[in-house]
Design goal:
The protein is an alpha+beta fold and about 170 residues long. Helix content is about 30%, strand content about 15%. It is globular.
């Protein structure tokens, strides 16, 4: 994770004015152990800065994400933010759905995709969600070597019989 100073230096280098509120945001994300929702940030910031609007908080989160100091991840329960990794090479993540620990994936799966010639990728994200060993143990999975039993309904998308013409013209 980036340190408070690294976050502030990056924002400053990109021409962003460093206010007391932005310093507080940088410190919050540098010290936060997991992912934070915009509401988490708003509640935290509101204790120190009365009259702060949710829009201001969200706008700052977006700016910080666009500058590359925050990562935005879409969880099942909504969008969350975390300080960007301090690793300087391109990589992706595995994220525990219970404790939100993040583990780097050492390679990029994009290299294994069959990219059509007429398609130019300008950016991509790849996250894998699951449960870490400690959380699996807490969930009653025994020795942590096997995860909890998940019961999934078969999906037409996972079936070989899926007909791509069946949904043509229908909005998803």
């Amino acid at each position: 994770m980036l340190s408070t100073e690294q976050i502030i230096d990056t924002m400053s280098a990109q021409g962003l004015r460093i206010t007391d509120q932005r310093r507080t945001l940088a410190r919050l994300f540098a010290e936060a152990p997991g992912y934070l929702t915009a509401k988490d940030v708003y509640d935290y910031m509101g204790k120190k800065y009365s009259g702060l609007s949710f829009d201001t908080v969200y706008r700052n989160l977006r700016v910080m994400q666009e500058l590359g100091v925050l990562e935005q991840i879409v969880f099942e329960d909504g969008v969350k933010f975390k300080s960007h990794c301090s690793q300087d090479h391109h990589h992706h993540h595995m994220i525990c759905l219970q404790c939100e620990k993040t583990y780097p994936i050492a390679f990029c799966p994009m290299d294994m995709t069959d990219m059509p010639e007429q398609f130019e990728v300008v950016k991509h994200k790849f996250e894998v969600f699951g449960y870490c060993k400690d959380c699996r143990q807490e969930m009653g999975a025994g020795d942590g070597k096997e995860g909890p039993t998940l019961h999934l309904k078969p999906s037409k998308l996972m079936s070989h019989e899926y007909d791509t013409h069946e949904h043509a013209g229908k909005s998803q």
